[in-house]
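Its record is retained below.
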Amino acid sequence: MSFRDGWRRLIGALSAPPRSARGEAKRNMDELWDETRRYAVVIRVATDQAIAYAPDEIPHIRDRDMGASIGLDRCHCCYVFETDADLAFAKEQQLTDWLDRTTREQLAYNGCPKWVVDKFHVSFTTHEDVVRKAGGDYRMYFS
């Protein structure tokens, strides 16, 4: 930060009207939501890249459920394979381990802090399981 930027920041802080506690709380919550939305995009990009770099033998990934929580404590991605047999094959060939590791690498590459990458939860399921347990309703299955 340059000397001029420091002065601008100081003058801005001194000339800003006092905030109420409610206004300050709203501003803090807005900042948290903005951070959550930014990291949700990073997660989407990282998982897109992990799927794009996947080996040819990996079974088809039908969908994925992903997201970031406020405060980034519970960020996750659940890859959805087409069938139970596809998931069993991926586990047997250690492709799920590869996908987990590559997802974390892509998160770090795209700017996630190390503590978010370390706490990031990668899981796997199948479309067949979604149909069995929630009648095919992804929102109900993942909530």
Remarks:
- The domain at 16-142 is CATH 3.30.300 (GMP Synthetase; Chain A, domain 3).
